[in-house]
Amino acid sequence: MSETHGIVILDFGSQYTQLIARRFRELGYYAELVPYNTPLEDLKSRSPLGLVLSGGPSSVFSEDAPQRDVKELLEIAPVLGICYGMQLLSHQLGGKVSPSRSREYGHSRVKWEDSFGDFEHPQSVWMSHGDVVEKPPMDSKIIGFSEGKHPAAIKADRYWALQFHPEVAHTDHGSELLRQFADQFCSMKKNWTTKSIKDHLLEDLKEQVKSGGQVLCALSGGVDSTVTATLLTKALSKERVKCVFVDTGLLRKLEFEEVLEMYKELGLNVHGVRAEKKFLDGLKGLTDPEEKRKKIGHLFIEVFKEAVKEIGECEWLAQGTLYPDVIESVSPRGTSVTIKSHHNVGGLPKDLGLKLVEPLRELFKDEVRRLGEDLGLPRKFLWRHPFPGPGLGIRILGEVTQARLDILKEADHIYISELKANGLYDEIWQAFSVLLPIRTVGVQGDGRTYDFVLGLRAVTSVDGMTANWYPFDPAFLSMVSNKITNEVRGVNRVVYDVTSKPPGTIEWE
User: Fold this and answer.
1) Which of 30, 45, 347, 393 makes the best surface tag, with the fewest CB within 10 Å?
2) pLDDT in tens, 488-505
3) Which residues pair with 320 in a beta bridge?
4) 477-497: average pLDDT
5) Could you tell me which of 182, 36, 210, 165 has the C-alpha nearest to residue 119?
6) What are the b/e assignments for 244-261, b being 16+ CB within 10 Å?
7) Ramachandran region, residue 329 (left: φ > 0; alpha: ψ -120 to 50; beta: rest)
8) How far is it, in rounded angstroms, from Cα 128 to Cα 306?
9) Which residues carry out catalysis?
10) Is the pTM higher than 0.85?
11) Which residues pair with 241 in a beta bridge?
């Protein structure tokens, strides 16, 4: 998906780079990411109205630091430098950058000396850097200082630069600052709506899959793959898009039957496959989360190979991969650090013989949900909490067995049912249970037990890139704990996770 006259973000490797694009799109401005070393002529061909230099983990002094001639960029369009981007601008334009004696990380405050424009500037901001700008370039002006008395914001005729991250939710009024950059500094008009997203995707799909071949669509039961299948069916036809919904045994309680029926009501050409034994056998003895993820991915491929034989030859395989999946696996555009692999990211084995189509690969979850609403999917389904592709396989820490799956399914069903019954489900971005690989002593029915510990997780978020734990009323947690330990055999202790992201991830594995 590409659009001229938008914001182009050069990815220097920050874990927050995807958020910059999301914030601009959220505000109604088209934005796309490219590698920091994208050829100059390629950048010019996109006719950007603004360029953003993202943050990154490197120091401008490192031998392997990603470099870019910022003077060339300034000739193309106005530039916004964020964190590493600010340091790169300063370093190359005659300023002075030095290693900081103490790293600024987390919440900080900015003292504003001047203004970028007539709008409310963030006071509380999110910092994440080791180097600092001691002296900005001669043509710029310092307009804000950090608590450590280092320049936190500078501006010049062709660029703005920020030492903090306006794209993260922890920075007050950060989105307003980005809005002003696009609107005032770049003279950009809003051009990114749900309709424009849908029109772009439908056009791209018709062009990409114009050969007339059949498309095999991998359905997981989640929002992303369902929107992918619906979009493909609308762009092509029900006859060309053949969906496969696999019961891996790792789905939630009753999910396979309920979702399969919904798919048929949506008019999708869907083929249900029972493969519980295949996945359980394949996961036997595996305890490392990365090994489990990769094994589940390989098993999916095997199932699809078998499905192709049953439903007929296909030329394409469609997947519901999203931006966060890509950035947490490996950045295809920059140098972001790998956090964890995703079973649907990274390409396909050559012997599968299918070409990959991922229409949602550059969309965020909220954009996918709005797109789904526009395509006519039920809102109650679209706003279900995210569910990982590997399913409960990564919510059972340690080896996955049928007995442990049964325990987790029952406990999680109680937890989610109580969230809905108490009007809490829609307040929470994602909630789930985790079965821990440890046993503790308990007293149940006047007898000693030695059973598993169950962890409960609930977070608020807008995109999954950052998240805060949900502050339940203790009475609710007590009620859920009592219900689970009374009704689910094999659990005698329940704990609640109060870790935000960062430093943790939302899922435990």
Assistant:
1) 347
2) 999 999 999 999 998 899
3) none
4) 97
5) 182
6) bbbbbbbbbbebbeebbe
7) alpha
8) 48
9) 83, 165, 167
10) no
11) 215
